[in-house]
Amino acid sequence: MSHNASERFWELASRWLDDGEQDLPSESIEETPEQLSVLVNAAKQEWLDAQSYFNNAVEPELVDHAILSLQAAERKYMYWLKRLKNSK
Questions:
Q1: By Cβ atoms counted within 10 A, which residue in 10, 53, 64, 87 is the most buried?
Q2: Three-class DSSP category at 29
């Protein structure tokens, strides 16, 4: 898959997985450590939910969706965890 096609794929996947909430700020907004902690905990729970979904998916189409959901949730968790660690 070419680099351009790969970028397009991830853009489309993120749109499909978007729940309408804007979790990642487009601008650099400073959150308090307490706010970051809440975001980290929410992202961790989302990641755990995605792992559970993946473990229970049996149909090929659902497995593909579960993999994408799991990857997205893991990246979101790692993003907020890094932001929290850098804020201290």
A1: 53
A2: coil
Burial class of residue 2 (count of CB atoms within 10 Å of its CB; 0-12, 13-18, 19+): exposed
Q: CB within 8 A of 68, min separation 6: which ones? A: 13, 16, 17
Within 8 A by CB and 6+ apart from 40, the residues are 77, 80, 81, 84
CB half-sphere exposure, 67, CA atoms < 13 A: 7
Retrieve residue 24's tokens: 């990642």
